[in-house]
Specification:
With about 350 residues, the protein is an alpha/beta fold. The chain has a single domain, classed as Aldolase class I (TIM Barrel, Alpha-Beta Barrel), CATH 3.20.20.70. Helices cover about 30% and strands about 15% of the residues. It contains ten helices and twelve strands. Helix 2 links the parallel strand 2 and strand 3. Helix 1 packs parallel to helix 2 and helix 1 crosses helix 9. The chain starts with about 30 loop residues before the first strand and ends with a helix. The structure holds S-adenosylmethionine. The site of S-adenosylmethionine has 19 residues, from strand 3, strand 5 and helix 10.
Length: about 350
């Protein structure tokens, strides 16, 4: 039985608000995918995500409570969001994650997914599935222990592998995501692709996104084409590309691996131009709506909620923010990418 979600009677979302045309931004793009960061806390300290120097965790205000989080999520789903991904920080740091999943899952017909580093996944996978979780993306940037430790500053590879196994045996759709940083883990592309081949799982290599203030630059950037070439040469086999199915996870190209159910993919977050088909928005753990990862000022939804704004008031704020969603990432205009908060705060 999924844990029941305590919802005060007077805050039931008015379902008739679910608009026929769905949620559109100012440029007419259909917005169907919401990523929610449920916490800023993380139990890893990946070198490229949470640099030791520079940005500090903001101390106040605290993250949304689970009631607040679900209420705000319901505003989005009532407007037309059809898929939700919970991220962080590390979402499994929240003990009430199962309850949050149970609160959101019926609103999107079960399409709630999780992005996690997998450290605590082994003991949570079944409970999350029972709560209504549909799939898990496990972030794994290295298949070898030393490399894992160098990147995450922790020794946790065997726990992550156990988490992946548990998620799969719980019946959760499970994929691996690996960010590739030149000079750090390009030597892990082939071991990760082999892991995909032997385990019959999908691993997607993601282009590293350098941005101002995280202490990392374009020198670490490796384009998807080069990642693919390394994978192909290392595996010693040509890769057969699958037809493109959608953009919900970004502009992914997926390739079958010979003699296996496994697949490798590349997600060109920077080298491919997909902003004109962008369908996503983000909600930070502090209840701020980010219409574009690198652009658009965050719009606070939490304070109005705490000041008793109605569901309709919040829906108006969301719609207004989306009329201003940028046409493209600032770097496409040659401007430096700036994140007003760290990637671990926005949720990737
Ligand atoms: N802790 C969870 C995890 O590890 O998946 C969720 C949060 S983490 C911020 C979400 C994703 O963002 C991870 O896959 C991480 O590798 C990715 N990420 C963080 N910084 C990035 C960057 N500069 N470029 C590309 N991906 C990044």
């Amino acid at each position: 039985m999924p844990p029941s979600f305590p919802m005060p009677m007077n805050s039931q979302p008015p379902r008739m608000l679910r608009l026929k045309d769905g949620l559109k931004d100012g440029l007419g793009r259909a917005i169907t995918y919401l990523r929610i960061s449920v916490t800023e806390q993380c139990n890893l300290a990946c070198v490229y995500c949470k640099p030791r120097t520079g940005a500090q965790e903001r101390a106040e205000p605290p993250a949304m409570s689970r009631n607040e989080l679900v209420q705000i999520a319901q505003v989005f789903t009532s407007l037309g969001i059809r898929k939700v991904r919970l991220t962080g920080g590390e979402p499994l740091m929240r003990r009430d994650l199962e309850t949050i999943v149970a609160g959101i899952s019926p609103e999107v017909e079960g399409r709630v997914h999780l992005t996690t580093n997998g450290i605590h996944l082994a003991r949570r996978a079944r409970g999350l599935r029972d709560a209504g979780l549909c799939g898990v993306n496990v972030s794994l940037d290295a298949a070898e222990r030393g490399s894992f430790e160098r990147l995450t500053r922790k020794d946790g590879l065997s726990r992550v592998l156990a988490g992946i196994e548990a998620a799969r045996s719980a019946g959760l759709k499970t994929k691996l995501n690996a960010v590739v940083l030149k000079g750090w883990n390009e030597d892990q592309i082939v071991p990760l692709a082999r892991l995909a081949q032997t385990e019959g799982i999908q691993v997607r290599f993601i282009e590293f996104m350098p941005y101002q203030d995280n202490g990392w630059g374009r020198d670490q950037f490796m384009p998807a084409g080069e990642i693919l070439r390394i994978a192909q040469e290392g595996l010693g086999t040509s890769l057969e590309e699958e037809p493109v199915v959608g953009l919900e996870e970004g502009p992914a190209r997926i390739f079958k691996l010979a003699g296996s159910e496994g697949k490798v993919g590349v997600i060109s977050t920077l080298s491919a131009d997909f902003c004109d088909r962008c369908n996503r928005v983000r909600l930070t753990s502090r209840g701020e709506l980010k219409a574009c990862l690198f652009g658009n000022k965050p719009v606070d939804l939490l304070e109005p909620l705490r000041n008793h704004a109605s569901h309709e008031d919040l829906a108006r704020l969301v719609r207004q923010a989306l009329t201003e969603k940028l046409d493209c990432h600032p770097m496409r205009r040659g401007e430096a990418p700036v994140l007003s908060s760290g990637m671990w705060q926005v949720g990737g």
